[in-house]
Amino acid sequence: MRRSLALGLAGLAAAVAAYLLWPRASSPEERVRAAVRQMEHGLEGRDASSVLDHVSEQFHSSTLGDRTDLRRAVLAEVLRGGGLKVVTLQADVLPEPDGRLRWVGRVAAARAGGAGLAAVTEGELQQFHVDALFGNEGGEWRVLDARVTPVQ
Which of these CATH numbers, 3.10.450.50, 2.115.10.20, 3.40.1190.10, 3.30.70.100, describes 27-150? Predict the structure, then answer.
């Protein structure tokens, strides 16, 4: 009897531990924010796939062109070397009536010179307003459209 009770308690403890440690599904808003962070790190780390993995095949932008144009621009930055420092200054994720999400924010960005990203100063950062529409494609949130305009 004691052995059964001990095994039962051990099983219950294991179940509770598994429940507490099991990864939780994040909200769609958190997943969009995470995608934006991964894209920023991809630009800084000269990793084109970290950026392009979050861009839809149907991507089209009035300021950035289609996915092919964006791919060329990202690859050009990667091949240029030095990296691109990008810092989100302010951002909101807003729901759209059709279930998509809009990431609206202000970012600061600068190309790193020969001294690398560590040498980029705050004065070299240029600010941009970004309005990006994300759609859920097979469980992944990807950019469908984006407008990037310099802040005056």
Answer: 3.10.450.50
Whole-number mean pLDDT of the chain? 82
Non-local CB neighbours of 109 within 8 Å, separated by 6+ positions: 84, 85, 86, 87, 125, 126, 128
**Residue 132 near residue 145 (C-beta atoms within 8 A):** yes
Domain boundaries, given as residue ranges, for the chain: 27-150
- What SS3 state is found at 97? coil
Query: Tokens 């920023």 appear where?
Result: 40
Per DSSP, what are the bridge partners of residue 145?
133
Q: Which two tokens stand for residue 86?
A: 């990008």
126 band by pLDDT with thresholds 50, 70 and 90: confident
